[in-house]
Write a structure and sequence with these properties.
heterodimer; A: 382 residues; mainly alpha; three-stranded antiparallel sheet; two-stranded antiparallel ribbon; 5 strands; 6% strand; B: 180 residues; alpha+beta; two-stranded antiparallel sheet; 6 helices; 6 strands
Chain lengths: 382, 180
């Protein structure tokens, strides 16, 4: 593996190369040694390759980040542990169902946002699946006889259907259905972005709005194609097809580098119940200061490891690290340190106690003479 | 951004106006992002306000496995991007000051961003604009330096003298995002 890695310019280029080779092989199998190539989709195919290269490069550099690497390392270790299989299975299943299929957590941020996001997400995933299936030739349709159509996936004949049946029209209209979902979702999102004053302050045109405009252009031109050949007997069809292809190419090239890149990294949410918090809000690790339960051992070990790997030296005088304390204790430690109040006399090397009880209201206690004598003694010593 | 945040913990009277102001801010969903807590409840009723330090190299962003915590051009450390945050709470444990908060309902982290939409135009953040005792101030860099000098003089009155080597320890804490 190391030798293979060294023969490439970078890890990203190595994985991109592997991904391209695998896609090419799948295409070779799917199109029956390139005998069923759909040359109408050539532009889509090239941009799909660029899409996969972009995703691979971005994912590689993302996984190489110390924090991501550490979490994934623990996930893989836990997945291999036999004892944890039940928990792993449950965690992945629950995340897949709640967070990815139903996206419950977004519905908790508001039903409008939930519906909007669900429509866009599944519209996108559905469209991408159909696009890649067709452009790489992973599936195609074959006419067996005048009454039967057959779907061929990777050269293996699968379901047969009547060309006018419900199943067939569902499959043929697949992209129209996903496009309609996207159109509704994108319009909902744009209405929200235009009308919401809070969002107007923080949103960025190139990050938050551009992908929405792009999706809108893509769905409108895509649906216009259907309108053109169904209702207008093919009026402007070649021009519309070209415009639609341009929008899709821009989208596929943009996807790995913009806001939509969150799609491939979301599945890591399964790492949270799998490695850290099995049940939400149930903690097992005690705070070194107040003894309250605030986290779990594995997560704190990971956090300390990640910080250590990045040369964060946060060790305190007593050998503990800030992450050994709960957040409230950490805030208190900082203030006590800042006001030099940890001990009766404060730390000699620390800042002067600005709360001297004389000049500043708030602290009523007057200090004993002992304090000042001690301070003088320490001064002499140092 | 020419101004800085200046905190004087001793001036805090515990009225929690800063928290109320923070809750009022649009987009905060009526949840405050700053803290007002007792320093040592059994000793005195002194409270302190606490908000994010806006670190140059933030530990919270470094421990985020999803790369969701971003830093603006002005140097403000933002809340986790909603679309990326996977809800692991690493940031709340990584932060040495205990600042980021976590919303279990909506499964996302949120933290003080120094009202960057206001401060980048040199308008005081919500908390500083309402603090009645000037424990939280949003002031010019010059003014902050002046205040620090005054505090140093006060320390001298108390009887402890800084030596050549540790002068810098004899000034109160200040922080904020500023560029000069």
């Amino acid at each position: 593996m190391e030798r293979l890695e060294r023969s490439f310019y970078s890890k990203a280029s190595m994985y991109s190369f592997i991904v391209v080779v695998v896609l090419f092989m799948l295409m070779w199998i799917g199109t029956g040694q390139f005998s069923h190539m759909d040359w109408m989709l050539f532009g889509y195919m090239v941009s799909s390759f660029i899409f996969f290269i972009g995703i691979t490069v971005r994912l590689t550099s993302w996984i190489m980040r110390p924090a991501t690497y550490e979490v994934l390392k623990r996930s893989i270790k836990n997945m291999k542990t036999k004892k944890r299989q039940k928990r792993n299975f449950k965690a992945i299943g629950k995340t897949l169902f709640d967070n990815i299929i139903l996206q419950k957590f977004i519905f908790k941020r508001g039903w409008y946002r939930g519906i909007q996001h669900w429509l866009i997400a599944w519209g996108c995933i559905g469209s991408l699946a159909i696009t890649f299936g067709l452009t790489f030739g992973w599936m195609h349709f074959k006419l067996i006889n005048a009454e039967t159509y057959q779907m061929v996936v990777f050269g293996i004949p699968t379901i047969s259907m009547h060309p006018d049946g419900i199943l067939a029209s569902m499959i043929f209209e697949g992209l129209n259905i996903t496009a309609a979902m996207l159109l509704i979702g994108v319009i909902m999102a744009l209405v929200r972005r235009i009308g919401n004053n809070d969002l107007k302050v923080t949103q960025r045109a190139e990050f938050d709005l551009f992908p929405l405009y792009l999706l809108l252009a893509m769905t409108v031109t895509g649906l216009a194609l259907t309108v053109s050949y169904k209702l207008l007997s093919g009026w402007m069809h070649p021009e519309l097809a070209l415009i639609h292809q341009i929008t899709v190419v821009v989208f596929l090239v943009y996807f790995p580098f913009g806001k939509l890149f969150h799609l491939p990294i979301r599945p890591m949410a399964a790492a949270v119940p799998m490695n850290y918090q099995e049940v939400v809000k149930v903690d097992t690790k005690e705070c070194a200061g107040c003894g309250e339960l605030y986290s779990n051992d594995d997560q704190i070990a990971d956090v300390q490891q990640i910080l250590g790997n990045q040369a964060f030296d946060l060790e305190m005088d007593n050998g503990n690290k800030p992450s050994d304390y709960c957040t409230a204790c950490r805030r208190m430690i900082r203030v006590m340190d800042h006001l030099n109040m940890k001990s009766k006399f404060g730390k000699v090397s620390g800042p002067v106690q600005t709360n001297n009880g004389i000049h500043v209201p708030g602290f009523g206690r007057e200090r004993s003479e002992e304090f000042y004598n001690q301070a003088v003694k320490e001064e002499v010593k140092s | 951004m020419k101004k800085v945040m200046y905190l004087e913990f001793e001036r805090c009277i515990g009225c929690r106006s800063c928290q109320a102001a923070c809750r009022e801010c649009g987009g905060h969903d009526a949840k405050e992002r700053n803290y007002v807590e007792y320093i040592d409840f059994f000793e005195s009723r002194q409270t302190f306000p606490m908000m994010c330090m806006q670190c140059k190299d933030p530990a919270c962003a470094r421990v985020c496995p999803a790369n969701a915590i971003q830093i603006t051009e002005e140097g403000v450390v933002l809340s986790a991007m909603e679309e990326k945050c996977i809800g692991c709470r690493n940031c709340t444990f990584g932060c040495p000051f205990g600042i980021p908060k976590f919303d279990f309902e909506e499964n996302k982290m949120y933290k003080c961003d120094m009202c960057y939409d206001r401060t980048k135009h040199d308008i005081a953040p919500m908390c500083a604009s309402v603090c009645p005792s000037d424990a939280i101030r949003f002031i010019d860099h010059e003014e902050m330096m002046e205040l620090r000098r005054k505090r140093t003089q006060m320390n001298l009155i108390e009887g402890k003298k800084p030596s050549e080597n540790d002068k810098w320890q004899y000034v109160p804490e200040f922080f904020g995002v500023y560029s000069d």
